[in-house]
Amino acid sequence: MDKVKVEICCGTACYLxxxxxxxxxxxxxxxxxxxxxxxxxxxxxELCEKENLGGAPYVRINGSEIMAQAxxxxxxxxxxxxxxxxx
Length: 87
Description:
By secondary structure, the protein is α+β, with helices and mostly antiparallel strands. The protein has helices at 12-16, 25-28, 47-50, 72-83, and strands spanning 4-9, 37-42, 59-61, 65-67.
């Protein structure tokens, strides 16, 4: 299995609306998931222009899946599904 790639939008709107709370998500991963997840902060995913600010903060998973209104809890749940092969 390749690593689960998580890109957290750190554009101004996303950062202020909660992305800052997800920047340490790697520290919250269970030990068995570490090394299976790659987290990267992105300057801007440009999703506010295409969608709207109501969806911020945004996270892109594995290059194509977009999570709107992301929270650390939602993100950890989705990472778990992908790492465990549930989804």
